[in-house]
């Protein structure tokens, strides 16, 4: 009922003229609801706020394509070169590109514009109860920080838009990346101060204090690393913030996190883009099956351990695989050989990846698409609904929510920060072992060095969150994005990524620089 209520309001709110602007810094819609008829009651503000939440759902990069950020890393390839991700990984990056390079920039500022108008009206209002006004301000400030964080992470020096702009100031100068970060932190801090301290499942799908703390810490973790070296003082602060989050725990069964019927009351999910079929749904199942956009690379499959513990690579089971057959032209023989890769492995492998164009052997195999790597994304697929109805493979009717923050991330962040500050303390072991126990893996052996624990933590980040859109940002903060050049997929031999140091920040879209008439300056080396 919570999800239905939220998205009934969101559907109505999406019709408001308030949410109709197009261009990146064309920040003021030409038509607005009249102040004599709108912005009066709490319901008016809730409808406008639902539109801000609904924009996350309507933006495919935050919904069904959110996991495709992994295609910018060593985890996967995106079929159809979706979002120009294949071009980005091949080093063909320029300011005139579509997809990620242009769309993230434009969408983020479009979202900020809506939030600024909302915040302006909340601040002006003198009739709302104080606790309601504080909550609305908190949610609006969270989203302004959230969307600014995307352009900060991907482009570095960017404009900061913290008010409704006039027609005379539609384009503004860039701020340094450090200034942008500081202003984002201010918004997160104000949001945390104003938001209710309840869990996400108790909030009817709204941002809460714990959620905002987790996102603040997540951005701090990115900021704390300089050329891959962490700032110990900042890491210490991250631990304190994360340990102040209360009320969450791991979902007992890992795969239940991604099953629609198990998400609403999840003890682990801290924020998600909520979908509700058929009117507020996504095309996730279709993207991962009939369109085969999510194509995991072999090196990701090899990262998953043997069941219990132990590296797969170099094991007797790994050495028994006939690579020639597995990557050969006999599809049936290849499928039988490929199935051996999934035997006796960390159970998160089967919960994350399928192989040989057969996500569900009980129904038809995927047809009409190129099987680039031999693997596909199983995570988030709605197995029961697909088997019952069959239509999830063919349209934008997928009901599952797209997770953007969960308590598993919090535990991994605590482990990473604590290990860098104090080495492999019991706090690190407790956080990592709770993740491993849930997966059915053995606890880590005592006595690991800091370097050995760092390797284990980074391994858990990769396998626990595979195809959830985080790997690119993990590699970015650890300053190892150049390692994508080492990808040599045995089946997808034509894929040869290239990387240059300047790619740590993308170019600003040339179309926006042209519109700005000299106010926006392109990033260096583009």
TrEMBL record:
Record's subcellular location: Cell outer membrane
InterPro entries xrefs: SusD-like_N, SusD_RagB_dom, TPR-like_helical_dom_sf
Domain SusD-like N-terminal: 23-221
Organism: Phocaeicola coprophilus DSM 18228 = JCM 13818
Signal peptide: 1-20
Membrane-spanning residues: none
SUPFAM superfamilies named among the record's database cross-references: TPR-like
Name of the protein in its database record: SusD family protein
Cellular compartments per GO CC: cell outer membrane
Keywords in alphabetical order: Cell outer membrane, Membrane, Signal
Annotated family: Belongs to the SusD family.
């Amino acid at each position: 009922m919570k999800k239905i209520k939220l998205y009934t309001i969101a559907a109505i709110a999406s019709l408001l003229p308030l949410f109709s602007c197009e261009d990146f810094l064309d920040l003021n819609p030409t038509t607005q609801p009249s102040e004599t008829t709108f912005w009066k009651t709490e319901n008016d503000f809730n409808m406008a706020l639902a539109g801000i939440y609904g924009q996350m759902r309507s933006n495919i990069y935050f919904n069904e394509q959110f996991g495709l950020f992994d295609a910018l890393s060593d985890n996967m390839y995106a079929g159809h070169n979706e979002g120009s991700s294949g071009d980005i990984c091949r080093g063909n990056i320029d300011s005139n590109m579509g997809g990620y390079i242009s769309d993230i920039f434009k969408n983020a500022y479009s979202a900020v514009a809506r939030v600024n108008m909302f915040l302006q009206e909340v601040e002006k209002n003198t009739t709302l109860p104080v606790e309601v006004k504080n909550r609305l301000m908190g949610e609006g400030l969270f989203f302004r920080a959230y969307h600014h964080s995307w352009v900060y992470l991907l482009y570095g020096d960017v404009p900061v838009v913290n008010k409704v702009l006039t027609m005379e100031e539609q384009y503004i100068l860039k701020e340094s990346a450090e200034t942008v970060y500081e202003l984002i932190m201010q918004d997160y801090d104000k949001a945390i101060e104003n938001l209710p301290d309840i869990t996400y499942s108790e909030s009817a799908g709204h941002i809460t204090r714990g959620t905002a703390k987790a996102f603040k810490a997540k951005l701090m973790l990115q900021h704390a690393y300089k050329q891959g070296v962490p700032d110990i003082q900042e890491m210490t602060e991250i631990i304190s913030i994360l340990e102040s989050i209360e009320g969450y725990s791991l979902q007992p069964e890992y795969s239940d996190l991604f099953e629609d019927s198990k998400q609403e009351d999840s003890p682990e999910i801290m924020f998600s883009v909520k979908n509700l079929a058929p009117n507020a749904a996504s095309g996730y199942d279709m993207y991962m099956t009939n369109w085969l956009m999510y194509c995991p690379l072999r090196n990701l499959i090899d990262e998953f351990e043997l069941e219990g513990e132990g590296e797969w690579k170099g094991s007797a089971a790994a050495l028994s695989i006939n690579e020639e057959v597995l990557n050969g032209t006999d599809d049936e023989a290849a499928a039988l050989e490929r199935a051996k890769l999934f035997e006796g492995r960390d159970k998160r492998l089967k919960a994350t990846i399928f192989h040989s164009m057969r996500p569900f052997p009980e129904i038809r195999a995927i047809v009409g698409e190129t099987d680039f790597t031999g693997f596909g994304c199983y995570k988030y697929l709605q197995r029961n609904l697909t088997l019952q109805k069959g239509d999830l493979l063919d349209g934008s009717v997928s009901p599952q929510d797209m997770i953007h923050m969960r308590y598993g991330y919090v535990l991994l962040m605590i482990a990473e920060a604590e290990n860098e500050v104090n080495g492999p303390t019991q706090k690190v072991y407790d956080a990592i072992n709770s993740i491993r126990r849930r997966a059915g893996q053995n606890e880590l052996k005592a006595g690991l060095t800091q370097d050995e624990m760092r390797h284990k933590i980074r391994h858990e980040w990769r396998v626990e969150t595979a195809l959830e859109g985080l790997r690119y940002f993990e590699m970015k903060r650890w300053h190892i994005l150049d390692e994508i050049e080492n990808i040599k997929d045995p089946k997808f031999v034509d894929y040869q990524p290239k990387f240059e140091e300047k790619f740590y920040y993308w170019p600003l879209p040339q179309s926006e620089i042209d519109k700005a008439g000299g106010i926006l300056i392109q990033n260096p080396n583009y």
